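wait is this the right file?? whatever heres the structure
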């Protein structure tokens, strides 16, 4: 897969991965009707800054690169544009707007401009509320995933299907030779990513 060190490289790599999944028939096949959808309006710089800041808050850089270095913001934009159906896309964008408005109301500035501690505090409270809402019973079906929880899902999914997450933080083993139920593990060893074996349907619910 192409390098994920740039957003463009990461986006291309995961597009190729989605195409491969479709070819193999493994769970990421979008309905044919999605191809006929009108192209969504490109995101503004402020929207991209918000998404990048939230993704980096979820997976910040440590001894390996974080969400930005893995190209996760571009991946999320691609998923919302090319994978979500119109109702899912509207739900995501409405949630994003409410998230951004809440940051401004509570802190007086855009989320992307907050100090790291304030970002962690605000996002943490939003995620806790989202997870509580998801755990509550809903009459007549299930509610869609709130924005904070959906961003976590997108960020983790995007990161660990990137080259950085799948073969730098983790260890890529595309064709494992054997199953070892009690394999030795030493400090510093990396878990295997098994990327082609972990492709599952991505849900915006």
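ok assuming it is, sequence goes like this
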């Amino acid at each position: 897969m192409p390098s994920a060190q740039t957003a463009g490289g990461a986006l291309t790599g995961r597009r190729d991965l989605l195409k491969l999944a479709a070819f193999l028939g493994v769970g990421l096949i979008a309905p044919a009707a999605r191809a006929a959808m009108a192209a969504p309006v490109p995101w503004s710089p402020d929207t991209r800054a918000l998404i990048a800041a939230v993704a980096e808050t979820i997976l910040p850089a440590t001894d390996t690169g974080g969400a930005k270095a893995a190209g996760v913001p571009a991946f999320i934009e691609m998923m919302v544009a090319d994978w979500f159906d119109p109702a899912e896309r509207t739900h995501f964008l409405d949630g994003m707007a409410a998230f951004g408005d809440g940051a401004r109301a509570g802190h007086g500035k855009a989320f992307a401009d907050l100090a790291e501690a304030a970002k962690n505090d605000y996002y943490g409270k939003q995620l806790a509320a989202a997870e509580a809402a998801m755990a509550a019973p809903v009459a007549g079906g299930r509610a869609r995933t709130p924005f904070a929880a959906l961003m976590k899902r997108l960020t983790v999914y995007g990161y660990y299907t990137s080259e950085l997450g799948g073969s730098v933080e983790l260890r890529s083993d595309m064709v494992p030779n054997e199953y070892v139920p009690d394999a030795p593990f030493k400090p510093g060893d990396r878990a295997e990513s098994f990327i082609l074996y972990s492709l599952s349907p991505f849900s915006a619910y």
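The radius of gyration is 18 Å. so i think its the right one actually
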